[in-house]
Amino acid sequence: MMAMPASIPFFEVENLQQTLGGHAILRGVSLSVPSGKTTVVLGGSGAGKSVLLKHLNGLIRPLSGSIKVKGREISDLTEREMTGIRRTIGVLFQDGALFDSMSIGENIAFPQREAGERDEAKIQHRVAEVLTLVGLSGQEAKMPASLSGGMRKRVSLARAIAIKPECLLYDEPTAGLDPILSESITHLISTMKEELKVTSVVVTHNLGAMRLLADQVIFLKDGEVHYAGSPAGLEESEDESIRNFISADAMGRG
Ligand SMILES: Nc1ncnc2c1ncn2[C@@H]1O[C@H](COP(=O)(O)OP(=O)(O)OP(=O)(O)O)[C@@H](O)[C@H]1O
Ligand SMILES: [Mg+2]
């Protein structure tokens, strides 16, 4: 595979529009996600963060506008063409999205099998390795229904990182976790970036996580990019909706 010039962003979104249930949800979103860096997406509930994230790996196709992955337009790719791109992108969905009929071990093995891995010993070794990373060592046989919300989230994270993707999309990776777990997951995301040079997009309400992780921040409001820039610039912003967001976090979550 040819190395990409450093200047090509991992994702480039231009004037993305989406309407769902008769409502304009994304209203001309443009943003750029640099390779190897962490972009944190903030914004109030309903701002369109999860919908935006689902466009980045082609789960939702744009109504109009352009989405490029490493320079390649993906808006009109077929599902089959999209599969190859999805193999380079790991996703941690907001609700975990585990397969309820499969054990934890099988859930984590699944994307490896999808990616064509046939060596069972290798698969199981990787399952054990990522479970240890998320603090759930030895829990392969458990079923998703028997897990707490926080545990589901960690299994989902383990599944996302199991295939060693080039890029990880995280939707609220720390929501619903206690402060200690929340911090350890934030550090894990940071490690993924430092050690594996993973490109990350992290949707979060957690300003502590933003401070630790963000190279760039996007603040979404009503389906539009309200701020794009450095984390420091966001914290210094005098904009009312940004100030409200920051002070609500300070009161609510510390
Ligand atoms: N499949 C869908 N059909 C209809 N409306 C949808 C669908 N998915 C999302 N929406 C609507 O789009 C808007 C944005 O939703 P989204 O899930 O992206 O918000 P969010 O910013 O992730 O919020 P939260 O912080 O609560 O997760 C909401 O008003 C939601 O009701
Ligand atoms: Mg969401």
Structure description:
The protein has 254 residues and is of the alpha/beta class. The chain folds into two domains: 11-88 and 168-252, Rossmann fold (3-Layer(aba) Sandwich), CATH 3.40.50.300; 99-164, no CATH class. The chain has helices spanning 49-56, 79-86, 104-114, 120-133, 149-162, 179-196, 207-213, 231-236, 240-252, and strands spanning 11-20, 23-33, 38-42, 64-69, 72-73, 89-92, 167-171, 199-203, 216-221, 224-229. The protein is globular, with a radius of gyration of 18 Å. It starts with 10 loop residues before the first strand and ends with a helix. The relative contact order is 0.17. The mean pLDDT is 90. It binds adenosine-5'-triphosphate and magnesium ion (MG). Residues 49-50, 94, 171 line the site of magnesium ion. Residues 20-21, 25, 43, 45-51, 94 line the site of adenosine-5'-triphosphate.
Assign the structural class, choosing from mainly alpha, mainly beta, alpha/beta, alpha+beta, or little secondary structure.
alpha/beta
CATH topology of the largest domain: Rossmann fold
CATH architecture title of the largest domain: 3-Layer(aba) Sandwich
Q: How many beta-strand runs? A: 10
Radius of gyration: 18 Å
Instruction: Show unreliable segments.
Output: none
What do we call the CATH homologous superfamily of the largest domain? Answer: P-loop containing nucleotide triphosphate hydrolases
Q: What percentage of amino acids are in beta strands?
A: 15-25%
